[in-house]
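REVIEWER CHECKLIST
Item 1: Sequence provided? yes
Item 2: Single chain? yes
Item 3: Sequence as submitted:
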Amino acid sequence: MRVRTRPIPPDRPRASRRGGSILIVVLVTLLFAAVALTLFIEKASDDLLVESRVAAARRLRLEAYSALETTLAVLQDFQIVNGSLRSPAEGWGDPLAWAGYVPAEGRAISVEFVDESGKLSLPRMTPSTLVELFKSWEIPQNDAEKLADALLQWMRPDYVPTSGFMPNYEDDPLPYVAPARPLRSFSELAAIDVVREAFFDPDGRPNAFWKRFTEAVSLLDFTQSNLNAVRPGVLAAYGFDSNQQTQLGDFLAGTGNYQTKGPGYFRTPAEAASILGSDVPPAVQGTSIGALRIIVTVLDSPSARSGYRLNVVVAPPGSTAKVVAQKATTKRPNTVVESPASPTATTAPAPPNNAAGGTGVGAQDQAPPLNYPFTILEIRENDEMPQPPADPTADSTVNPPVKA
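Item 4: Structure as written out by the authors:
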C-alpha cells in the first residue's frame, strides 16, 4: 500500500515582513499628515480670526467717528448755552440719546466720559503733593518720600531728592538712563526704580496701587483740577479730611444728605465753600472741564465680544490743558550728536499761508479754515483695554515693597 503525503506549503516570512513594513510606513505617513493638517487648520483659524477682527474694526470705524462727532456737537450746544462744560449732571451724560442718534444695522454704541481735569496734573505736582497722595494710601512717610523722589528724578533733570534715594539704572541687566522729562505713558512706571516694586506684582502685572495712581493722576498739563470731577485721591493729596471728601462725593453723586436733590455741580469756586470750606487751594478751584476723555465703543451687536474702540481727549475752547511733548534731556557721555543744520541738508519751502484769502499759488483750491470748537489732544484707536489690577481685593493699608 502506498501512502500519499501532503506537500508542506513553502514558508514565506520575507513577504510578511515586507507587508508589515509597508503598513507601518502608511500609518506613520497618515499620522504626520494629520498633525500637519491640524496645525494648518489652527494657524489658518488664527489668521482668519485676526483678519475678521481687522475687517470688523475697519467697518465699525466710520460708525465710531460718526458717534464722536455727534457727541462733540451735543457738548458744543451745552457749552454755548451754559458758557462752559462742568459736569454730566448738566444733562449731556448720554449725548447720543439727546441727539436721537440711531446706529446702523442694529449695532450697539456706548459713550463714556472721563474728566482728565478732575485729576492731578502730574507735570505740575510738587513733591509734597505726591507724598501726601501716597500717605493717603496708608504708605509710611519714608516710603512715600522714596516713591516721590524716584518718580520726580525720572521726570525732572535738576530734581534734588529729599530722602537721599538715588537710583542707578546703568547697573541693571539692561542699562538705561532716566529721560528727565514728564511721563508719556503709565507703562513707564514699570521702568522706574522703587515705583515698579510698589505698583506692579512680581509677574509685572499692575496692582491696586497702580490703579489708584492712574485714577488720581493725569499725564496732561493743566493748571487747575475740576472740583466737579475730583477723585478722592486728589482731595487727600491737598489735605482734605475724609468727612470733606464724603460730603463732596455725596453732593456730586446725589447720595447721602443730597439724595433728594440729585447729582449736583458747582458753577463757581465760591459755591464749594459750604462743603470744603474757604481754604480751598488754587490748584483745585476749577469748576469747568479742561480736558475730557471720550471713549466710544461700537459693537456689531449687544452680545458681540469684539468691536471698535475710539479713545479721544479734547480740550474745550479757552482751556489751557495740553499734552507734554518734551524730549528727553538726559544724554550719555561721549555721545556724538549730529548738528540739525547740515551743510548738505535741504529744507522744503513752507507753503504760502492763504488762510486769510491770500492770492498765492493754489489759493483758489484751498478750503476755508475750519473753526472747530474743540482742540484734539489725543486720539487712540483700538488701544489696549485697561487691565484689572493683579489683586483687586487688596487692602489699601498694605504697604508696598520699597527698597532700602
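Item 5: Key structural point noted by reviewer: The longest strand covers residues 307-315.
Item 6: Recommendation: ____
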